[in-house]
Amino acid sequence: MINKDFLSTISVLYVEDEDLAREKLCKLLTKLFKRVDTARNGKEGLDKFIEAKNSNSPYDLVISDINMPIMNGIVMLEKIRDIDSEVPFIFTTARSESENLLKAIALNANHYILKPIDLQDLIAKSQAVCEKDYFQRQLQEKQKEMENFLGAINNVAAVYIFNEDGEITYANESFLESIKYTQEELLGKKLEDIFHPEISKSIIPSIWDKIKSEETLETIIRYNNKDDESLYFSAAIFKLSGHNDEFISIGFESTEDVIQKKEFNKKVMKSFQEFNKKESNYKKEIQELKAKLMKFQSALVKLQKDLQAEKIRNQQKESQLAAYDSKALSSSGRTTDVLEQKSKEIQTHIKNNRLLKSKNEELDERVETLERELQKRGSELESLKERYQIKIKEIKELEKKR
């Protein structure tokens, strides 16, 4: 299947001495390839190849006739191979000549196409040889990157390799320097020989289970060096690709102080998170208390207003009652019926006055209750503020320790 996107990235040099054939095929190839340059003979083709190479815009593919004046295709390919041993090369020719075919094969020509050229066949073969060359270059670049990467790791990390029996088969200089063994002394030793004695034997099988399942184990391992000194390494351990029975450990030395500091930082972060959670709850509780306080204050104001209004009404009724009493005393000459009637009215007013006084006392009691509740809520609010300030001081002290 033709990959037009891939072909659009390919630069082609087409060498053909017949003008009509060269122009016709060049026009067709230009629709597919990124760039198509032409030459009329091998000498001109070689010059263009060298020029493109020197200008850092080399050709990805050369398509050339064999039989041409001045310099034929075979000679041109010989000279190109002195410059570039890998560039893909396709020959086109009107004759099938075994001698030329053998020379082309010896010069690492990729294909040999007879004229008249089948365009679909030419494009398919061009794509195939360019893809092969492209992927080979990509693989070489990746291998080079991997070599550089491994070289960089080898310079800064402690690396050792061991087999499925736990025997060490390789160790780099960084690990040997830390563990204080020579390569000869360390090779053949088992992991248990260099692990610290305090590492539980029951943990080792779980390590094997994980790395044998092709998982990467990231952990901190404690070793004993040749001088019986403890060493800590933060390491990644995994199975080597393409090796059924070998595993690699890549680690960085870490002191016990560093480990303790990491644990302390974890605790600080946990405490900080817990404090933030408590602080949020405190703030929420304070807001709720403030809302309740405002509600109580509003109710208290209303009750005070009601109480004042009720006192005014009571005063008015007491004044009216006093007026009735005065009137009753001054009108002793009235008839008995009038006195009895006024006496009843006085009794009624006295009764009402007692009720009003009772209601006033009840209102006073409610006001006192609300004032006590208000004082209680105010005390709770002050307590929460004090606890909030204490927590702020605690977190600042923790941050200073970090």
List the helices and strands and how they pair.
Layout: H1 4-7, E1 11-15, H2 19-30, E2 35-39, H3 42-54, E3 61-65, H4 73-83, E4 89-93, H5 98-106, E5 111-114, H6 119-156, E6 158-163, E7 168-171, H7 173-179, H8 183-186, H9 191-194, H10 203-212, E8 217-224, E9 230-239, E10 246-253, H11 256-330, H12 336-401
Parallel strand pairs: 1-2, 1-3, 3-4, 4-5
Antiparallel strand pairs: 6-7, 6-10, 8-9, 9-10
Helix pairs in contact: 3-4, 11-12
How would you name the oligomeric state of the polypeptide chains in this document? single chain
Superfamily at the CATH H level of the largest domain?
Response regulator
Low-confidence stretches: none
Secondary-structure element order, N to C: HEHEHEHEHEHEEHHHHEEEHH
Global mean pLDDT: 79
- The percentage helix is 55-70%
Total number of domains:
3
How widely separated are the two ends? Answer: 62 Å
Give a quick account of the main beta sheet: strands, pairing sense, barrel closure: 5 strands, parallel
Structural class based on helices, strands and sheet pairing: alpha/beta
CATH class of the largest domain: Alpha Beta
Overall, the morphology is: elongated
Number of strands: 10
The CATH topology of the largest domain, please? Rossmann fold
Instruction: Specify the CATH architecture of the largest domain.
Output: 3-Layer(aba) Sandwich
* Rg over CA atoms: 51 Å
- % residues in beta strands: 5-15%
User: How do the strands of the widest beta sheet line up side by side?
Assistant: 2-1-3-4-5
Number of helices: 12
